[in-house]
Design a protein that fits this description.
Radius of gyration: 31 Å
Strand content: under 5%
Mean pLDDT: 81
Number of helices: 5
Largest sheet: none
Helix content: 55-70%
Distance between the termini: 84 Å
Low-confidence stretches: 120-128
Number of strands: 0
Order of helices and strands: HHHHH
């Protein structure tokens, strides 16, 4: 239901703003403002999107949780969609989402409302575990078996008869 209200309210807000601002400054300046904000917004979205992409890659490389940089990237993508949508209200929200401090605040607010649950279990059949997949705390020894699979070395003292195969005769 809240989403339906947004789909009804936002166009009404945009129509009202177009009428008010167009009445104050005229049709062509109003359309020029909408065009200029779309151009500036797409440039800023591209710059910040590349920065967010680099932050996601860095978090993966440093084995950190990539949730925040990915959320920033999603907000930048959403800001781009809002900036390409003609309107003053959507442009204002889009430009606000391009401000890193606003995105950080939005991420913190979303994190308060979204509960993330993860589980990680390890099942072990080796001795040295407590039967629930966790290593026992009493010793640091892990029993295991191994088999040497190193190929046999050819003796280097034998003289090979005939060509080596590297050249043609």
């Amino acid at each position: 239901m809240p989403l339906l209200l947004l789909f009804i309210a936002i166009p009404l807000i945009e129509i009202g703003l177009f009428i008010q601002i167009g009445g104050l400054i005229g049709l062509w300046p109003t359309l020029l403002i909408v065009l200029v904000t779309a151009i500036i917004g797409s440039y800023l979205v591209r710059q910040q999107g590349l920065l967010a992409l680099n932050q996601v890659a860095d978090s993966f490389n440093q084995l950190r949780n990539p949730a925040e940089p990915m959320a920033h990237g999603a907000m930048i993508l959403f800001a781009g969609a809002l900036l390409l949508t003609p309107g003053f209200f959507t442009d204002t929200v889009g430009f606000l989402l391009l401000v890193p401090g606003i995105r950080g605040w939005a991420f913190r607010e979303m994190r308060k409302r979204v509960k993330v649950q993860s589980s990680f279990t390890v099942h072990s059949t080796m001795r040295g575990s407590d039967g629930r997949g966790r290593p026992s705390q009493d010793d640091g020894v892990i029993d295991g078996e191994f088999e040497d699979v190193t190929p046999d070395k050819r003796p280097t003292h034998q003289v090979q008869k005939g060509p080596s195969g590297w050249t043609k005769h």
